[in-house]
């Protein structure tokens, strides 16, 4: 009875099927219990559970290599460049008053421009049915219409290119496993923001095509929708550029001192102020506020114009009164330059790496260049080339501010 219940250990160990369950005791050949056929182990095949568990790295999620991170970083850097191009091209479209020349929107059909004389005349007739032609451009010729139409067409096609630049590589990198878990969420948000940006652009254009019987002003898009369109583009640009910097620029191991923490907070606040100044430019453009007081530093004959708060309620002046909008843009610009100057001198009091010092100097130089461009644009009654350069300068200052923020960012533990 004892031998039946407790067989000798030698007999148990002699069973080839049970030997598979004991680490380090695997036979030279594998047993197939169902058919009694022995098959040799294939490369990478394990005979025991313990052998599988002891293999290094098995069961863990592989992380993208440094080379893959650099590729993704360069891709996002290119994407931010395409967004900057869209912002600049959109500014030129607004300055040439071309944004309302295309009166409908089709994602695929709208990609084909008119090719024959009949198609151009049909497109021109559609434009003639809307307020901008009736009130402002009633004597426009077909050749003049072609110019403004191609301006708006190029802006829309560039927007489609931006969408492809984000979505197609994102799908490829996702499939290749080159995106970390945190980066996947960020890339999804960027792609979603690109799609939202296109819809917001058409929503903005529709506001300029609507009939407004009670208004005696020239037809233009809503400054609120214009600011939303520009603001979402700036958010997309900043998020792409910041992520690119995070992947491409190695972090400095700076000693955490009270002065460094103060500099870091001040840099964040300054970047936010630069963003707000650039966004206020959308209200200046939307209301043609750059044409109301073309003098500097005074506005006309006084420092504070008399028509600064003529609208009621008072808050409307901030967004709808051209005088107040220009005044606010001036104040924000001056405050931004003062903050950047203070940030530069504050950075000189701290021992910083060479690349960080270059970022601070670049930010300071671009800020004063931008001020010079803004004043020149104002005094010369907003010529299109100079105004477009001024709008581009705001992106350059914002980029330098993000660069400096990236240089001062915390090293993850």
Description:
This protein is mainly alpha-helical. It has 15 helices and no strands. The protein has helices at residues 2-5, 9-13, 16-19, 49-53, 66-95, 117-127, 131-136, 142-176, 181-209, 223-248, 258-286, 316-320, 322-347, 354-379, 384-407. Helix 11 (258-286) packs antiparallel against helix 13. The longest helix is centred in the middle third of the chain and has 35 residues, at 142-176. Mean pLDDT is 86; it is low at 1-39 and 43-60.
Topology record:
Elements: H1 2-5, H2 9-13, H3 16-19, H4 49-53, H5 66-95, H6 117-127, H7 131-136, H8 142-176, H9 181-209, H10 223-248, H11 258-286, H12 316-320, H13 322-347, H14 354-379, H15 384-407
Helix pairs in contact: 5-8, 5-10, 5-15, 8-9, 9-10, 10-11, 10-15, 11-13, 11-15, 13-14, 14-15
């Amino acid at each position: 009875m004892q031998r039946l219940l407790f067989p000798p250990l030698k007999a148990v160990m002699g069973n080839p099927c049970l030997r598979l369950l004991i680490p380090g005791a695997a036979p030279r050949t594998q047993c197939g219990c169902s058919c009694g056929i022995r098959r040799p182990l294939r490369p990478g095949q394990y005979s025991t559970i313990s052998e599988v568990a002891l293999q290094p790295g098995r069961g863990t999620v592989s992380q993208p290599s440094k080379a893959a991170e650099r590729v993704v970083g360069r891709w996002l850097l290119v994407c931010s460049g395409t967004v900057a191009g869209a912002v600049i091209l959109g500014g030129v479209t607004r300055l040439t008053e071309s944004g309302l020349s295309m009166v409908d929107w089709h994602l695929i059909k709208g990609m084909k421009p008119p090719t024959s004389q009949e198609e151009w005349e049909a497109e021109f007739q559609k434009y003639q049915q809307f307020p901008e032609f009736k009130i402002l451009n009633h004597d426009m010729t077909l050749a003049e219409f072609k110019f403004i139409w191609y301006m708006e067409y190029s802006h829309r096609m560039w927007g489609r290119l931006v969408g492809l630049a984000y979505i197609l590589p994102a799908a490829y990198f996702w499939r290749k496993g080159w995106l970390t878990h945190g980066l996947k969420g960020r890339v999804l948000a960027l792609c979603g923001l690109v799609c939202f940006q296109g819809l917001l652009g058409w929503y903005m254009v529709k506001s300029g095509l609507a009939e407004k019987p009670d208004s005696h002003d020239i037809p233009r898009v809503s400054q609120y929708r214009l600011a939303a369109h520009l603001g979402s583009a700036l958010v997309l640009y900043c998020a792409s550029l910041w992520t690119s910097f995070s992947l491409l620029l190695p972090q400095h191991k700076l000693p955490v001192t009270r002065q460094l923490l103060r500099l870091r907070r001040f840099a964040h606040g300054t970047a936010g102020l630069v963003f707000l100044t650039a966004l206020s430019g959308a209200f200046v453009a939307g209301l043609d506020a750059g044409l109301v007081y073309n003098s500097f530093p005074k506005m006309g004959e006084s420092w504070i114009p008399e028509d600064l708060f003529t609208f009621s309620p008072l808050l409307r002046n901030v967004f709808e009164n051209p005088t107040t909008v220009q005044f606010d843009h001036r104040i924000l610009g001056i405050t931004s330059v003062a903050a950047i100057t203070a940030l530069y001198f504050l950075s000189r009091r701290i021992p910083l790496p060479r690349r960080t010092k270059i970022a601070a100097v670049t930010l300071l130089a671009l800020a004063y260049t931008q001020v010079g461009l803004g004043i020149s644009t104002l005094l010369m009654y907003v010529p299109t080339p100079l105004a477009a350069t001024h709008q581009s300068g705001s992106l350059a200052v914002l980029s330098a501010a993000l660069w400096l923020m990236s240089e001062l960012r915390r090293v993850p533990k």
